[in-house]
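Why should sequence recovery work at all? Because a backbone constrains its sequence more than one might expect. Tight turns favour small or flexible residues, buried strands favour hydrophobic ones, and helices have their own preferences. The token representation captures these environments compactly. In the example below, the structure is given first.
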């Protein structure tokens, strides 16, 4: 004959089930707490003055950039002569504040590059993406420092 369960064995069984449930949920709870602390840490120490919006007064001048753009043109091994778009604000996902589109005047070379500019310096370049908007740009010859003065 089987003995009926006692109150203490029922309580002990419930405790074990709760403990198992907590053990199963602990990794998820810990991950949520970690994600929350990381997100809260991202907001700490950020001064809104450092995130000043870009305005027309800060647009980089093409004359000082001309030599760097020419160097990028040669690094990309484009043929012909460089043609550039006007400087404009870069997409939010870009590594720089400003963008200039670069291509060759040679019709045989259809590649278009996006040059990312920050603090009057070309910080990166890549083949232009759709988000860069280079397909809709008007291109002009690369100005030389003598032409802009």
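From this structural description, the recovered sequence reads:
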């Amino acid at each position: 004959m089987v003995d009926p369960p006692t109150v203490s064995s029922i309580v002990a069984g419930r405790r074990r089930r709760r403990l198992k449930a907590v053990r199963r949920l602990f990794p998820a709870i810990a991950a949520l707490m970690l994600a929350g602390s990381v997100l809260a840490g991202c907001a700490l120490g950020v001064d809104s003055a450092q995130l000043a919006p870009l305005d027309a007064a800060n647009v980089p001048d093409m004359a000082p950039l001309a030599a760097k753009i020419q160097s990028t043109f040669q690094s990309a091994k484009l043929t012909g002569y460089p043609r550039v778009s006007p400087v404009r604000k870069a997409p939010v996902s870009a590594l720089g504040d400003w963008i200039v589109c670069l291509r060759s005047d040679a019709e045989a070379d259809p590649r278009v590059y996006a040059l990312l500019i920050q603090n009057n310096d070309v910080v990166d370049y890549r083949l232009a993406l759709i988000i860069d908007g280079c397909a809709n740009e008007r291109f002009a010859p690369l100005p030389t420092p003598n032409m802009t003065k």
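A few observations help interpret the result. The two ends are 106 Å apart (CA to CA).
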